[in-house]
Every structure is written in C-alpha cells, then in structure tokens.
Write a structure and sequence with these properties.
This protein is mainly beta. The chain is 0% helix and 50% strand. The strands form 2 sheets. Strands 2, 4, 5, 6, 9, 10 and 11 form a 7-stranded mixed sheet that branches. A hairpin with a 4-residue loop joins β7 and β8.
Length: 113
C-alpha cells in the first residue's frame, strides 16, 4: 500500500524555523519520484509550495516562499524534507506531501506570537 506520512509541524513564532519530513512507503519501483509540498488554509485555494523533480533533483518554489523554504531529499531514507525559515503568519496552513495521486494526511504549521 502506497503511503505518505508527514512529520514536523507545530507552533512557531514569526521569524522562526521548522523542518517538515515526508516519508514514502509502498511504492513498487525503487526509483526517484517527483515530490511536492502543498499547503491549504480554510477559505483559500490549495497552493503548491515546492517540488523536487524525479530525474535530476531540480527544485521549484512558489514565489511566496522563494528564498525562505528549501526542499531536499534523502533517497536512502525515502524521505523528502521542507526546511522553512523566516516563517511568517501567512505561512500558517496544513502542509501536505504529494506524489502523483497519493497524498499524506497533512501536518499543521502555525506561525504566531
């Protein structure tokens, strides 16, 4: 069974940092896949935050997080990370990991003083 599990959400003050992790399991073929982080806040559309592409590991970021967030992967651990620095209140959302049609359960990130 294909599964994605996110870790690392929580409450942080503005200007702080968090690192999210997405652990993948159950994929039949052991090859890199494109992994994306999305976020959703009630009343807003789901937003693509960052992606790391399967073949070359190149990355893509939303303009709203460029320069503050960094996506990376550890293929040996089947894990993709989202390092979030200089967090702002508007980064508050549920963050989801995605591979193709598979989604994680989400992890809450709250940025507040």
């Amino acid at each position: 069974q294909v599964q994605l599990v996110e870790y690392g959400g929580g409450l942080v003050q503005p200007g702080g940092s968090l690192r999210l992790a997405c652990v993948a399991s159950g994929f039949t073929a052991a090859r890199p896949r494109t992994v994306s982080w999305f976020r959703h806040t009630p009343g807003k559309e789901r937003e693509l935050v960052a992606s790391i592409f399967s073949i070359d590991g190149n990355t893509h970021y939303a303009n709203s997080v460029k320069g503050r967030f960094s996506i990376s992967r550890d293929l040996a651990k089947n894990t993709v990370y989202l390092q979030m620095n200089s967090l702002k209140p508007e980064d508050t959302a549920v963050y989801y990991c995605n591979i193709g049609l598979t989604w994680g359960q989400g992890t809450q990130v709250t940025v507040s003083s």
